[in-house]
Amino acid sequence: MNFIVSGIGAGLVSALLTAVVVKATPLAAILYLLAPIPVLIVSLGWNHRSGLVAAVVGGLAIAAFISPLSGLAFAVITALPAWWLAYLALLGRPEPDGAIEWYPTGRLLAWVAGTAALTIMATAIMSTRGDYAAYYQNAREIAEAFVNLQFPASQSSLDAETRSGFIDVVASFTPFLSAQGFTTVLALYLWAAARIVSISKRLPRPWPTVSELQMPRSISVLLVVAVLLAAFFDGFISVFASALAGALFTAFALQGLAAIHDRTRGKPGRPFLLTGVYLLVLMTQGILVVALSLFGIADTVFGLRRRFGRSGPKQPPTLST
């Protein structure tokens, strides 16, 4: 019964964090963004079945107090992605010597990207009831607001036709950009939840060194396929492909950061170098992410760390970088 009680508690907390978004305040928005964390913590620290209980309880609570559609959205968009990633993180199989081979961190990162893309797709379908025209209209309104903010009509030299075309391009990239942000958020949530559970001594697996994560080569092929589908198909197929491309692009950027962490271990001035990299990412508004993504792709395809060897002494499994 322990996993049921913990799952009920986590589901109610997550539902409360989700429901406060109706207040439409900055604090409510922050609390809403934290809603998946209770599900992740209870799934990692107790049992993945606790996460399923949390998804059901939270969805029923929101359905009862807000609306059935909101309850379904909570389960599909917030709770189930968190449960799924926690479930994968705790997958393991026994080896002949009795040790447990845990699910590789690189594959887990790939699933973070895939989960983010599927969630963006589910959000697009549920928010428009499967009407692609309605979805594109919403995306175009968001893109128009963004363009007007960045390039005010009174100060811009763009004519109406060029401006409209630019808005269409931005609208088509909405799933790509949304998935980029959501992939980063999911990865941070999973790391933070695992850290919290590890401190409480309830994490079943020894969390591997984050800097050693590396996705399989097949993921780079999947990125190419996603880009091609986004370029040559329309409708929700294009939405999902664009979201998947954005999510994988970000996952490779995270791997690029991991490779930098790995290559600088044991080097003098490492903290200053890493701080500089993160500051550049923030100051360039994500432009450096392109370079990190390309570095991550090269690391996956050509095995740069295997080819040139790892830097610094081998460290035991830890939650640190």
Automatic annotation (TrEMBL):
<keyword id="KW-0472">Membrane</keyword>
<feature type="transmembrane region" description="Helical">
    <location>
        <begin position="51"/>
        <end position="67"/>
    </location>
</feature>
<feature type="transmembrane region" description="Helical">
    <location>
        <begin position="108"/>
        <end position="126"/>
    </location>
</feature>
<feature type="transmembrane region" description="Helical">
    <location>
        <begin position="173"/>
        <end position="194"/>
    </location>
</feature>
<feature type="transmembrane region" description="Helical">
    <location>
        <begin position="29"/>
        <end position="46"/>
    </location>
</feature>
<feature type="transmembrane region" description="Helical">
    <location>
        <begin position="73"/>
        <end position="92"/>
    </location>
</feature>
<keyword id="KW-0812">Transmembrane</keyword>
<feature type="transmembrane region" description="Helical">
    <location>
        <begin position="272"/>
        <end position="298"/>
    </location>
</feature>
<dbReference type="InterPro" id="IPR018710">
    <property type="entry name" value="DUF2232"/>
</dbReference>
<feature type="transmembrane region" description="Helical">
    <location>
        <begin position="215"/>
        <end position="233"/>
    </location>
</feature>
<keyword id="KW-1133">Transmembrane helix</keyword>
<dbReference type="Pfam" id="PF09991">
    <property type="entry name" value="DUF2232"/>
</dbReference>
<protein>
    <submittedName>
        <fullName>Membrane protein</fullName>
    </submittedName>
</protein>
